[in-house]
Design brief:
By secondary structure, this protein is an alpha/beta fold. It has one domain: Vaccinia Virus protein VP39 (Rossmann fold), CATH 3.40.50. About 40% of the residues lie in helices and about 20% in strands. The chain has eight helices and seven strands, in the order αααβαβαβαβαβαββ. A seven-stranded mixed β-sheet has the order 3-2-1-4-5-7-6, sandwiched between helices. Helix 2 runs antiparallel to helix 4, helix 2 runs antiparallel to helix 5 and helix 3 packs across helix 4. The longest helix is centred in the first third of the chain and has 18 residues. The N and C termini lie far apart (about 55 Å). Specifically methylates the N7 position of guanine in position 527 of 16S rRNA. Keywords: Cytoplasm, Methyltransferase, rRNA processing, S-adenosyl-L-methionine, Transferase. It is found in: Cytoplasm. It holds the Pfam family GidB.
Length: about 210
């Protein structure tokens, strides 16, 4: 593993095989990003830290062979990164939900060429529960505010007997989103400090229910 890459991983334990797959993904990403807008262009030079490392921390928080639904997968963060980690675990699956056909095409290539454990659903998020009836975990990054995210997640998390847990990357203003969301929902919340940005977090949400008026 290159010294610069070791530094970028910031102490996260990742096997050599997974690192090789992440490097291949990064190469594919840079190639495709020249023609389609996968992430903000200003963040491309910091791809490993801003996007790959930020996504890797999710599997570190919730390892194991789970079935994930990744909402608004875009350029593959965190969904493809989680799917690459699952290939080492030899179990689990990531359903990547992305309605943009160009981005969905990139995601398919990324999954195929890295051997990641996932599939792409080129549909709107609202249609996903009918196609993916259950899951163990949900992820989303840079997609919507927390209240909207919980609306998207409700069909899975409110299902009878559901133990689905959601993980959302959020920036420094996350507390305002939490305060807004609790006016409509009840949930258990764990705030995980980001390994990438000191003011950012990953919100872990479980036991979701709607508040009754």
């Amino acid at each position: 593993m290159q010294a610069s890459l070791t530094q970028a991983l910031n102490g996260l334990r990742v096997s050599r095989e997974t690192v090789q797959k992440l490097e291949h993904f990064a190469s594919l990403f840079q190639k495709w990003a020249r023609s389609i807008n996968l992430v903000a262009p200003s963040t491309l030079e910091d791809l490993w830290r801003r996007h790959i490392l930020d996504s890797l921390q999710l599997y570190q928080l919730s390892p194991g062979t789970k079935t994930w639904v990744d909402l608004g997968s875009g350029g593959g963060f965190p969904g493809v990164i989680t799917a690459i980690c699952l290939s080492e675990a030899e179990g689990g699956w990531v359903h990547l939900v992305e309605s943009n056909n160009k981005k969905a095409a990139f995601l398919r290539v990324a999954l195929r060429e890295t051997g990641a454990r996932g599939s792409v659903h080129p549909i709107r998020i609202e249609a996903a529960p009918a196609e993916i009836p259950s899951c163990d975990a949900i992820s989303a990054r840079a997609l919507a505010d927390l209240s909207q995210l919980l609306d998207y997640c409700a069909p899975w998390m409110l299902a009878e007997g559901s133990g689905t847990v959601a993980f959302f990357h959020k920036g420094r203003d996350y507390q305002q989103e939490v305060d807004k969301a609790v006016s409509r929902f009840q949930f258990d919340l764990i705030k995980h400090a980001s390994v990438v940005e000191p003011d950012s977090v990953v919100l872990e949400i479980a036991n979701l229910s709607r508040r009754t008026k």
